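thought: fold this chain, then report.
action: predict
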Amino acid sequence: MIMTQGEWISVADRLPKAYEDVLVYSKGEFFIAYIGYRYRGWLFYEATSSEEFPVEYWMELPPKPKAE
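observation:
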């Protein structure tokens, strides 16, 4: 599967690699989160939970800026 940057991926289709920071969408909100397989679920950097905000879609984060 060829994926261009910025495509939303349904969690029903596939999940990101473990411990890879991604942008997630849930209930009209956006968060930075990652999958922690040890904990069997999404982990958010914000004070929220995947029970309150079940992740529907995710996408890779853009690359970091290059130093000039």
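thought: worth noting. The first strand starts at residue 9 and ends at 10.
final: tokens above.
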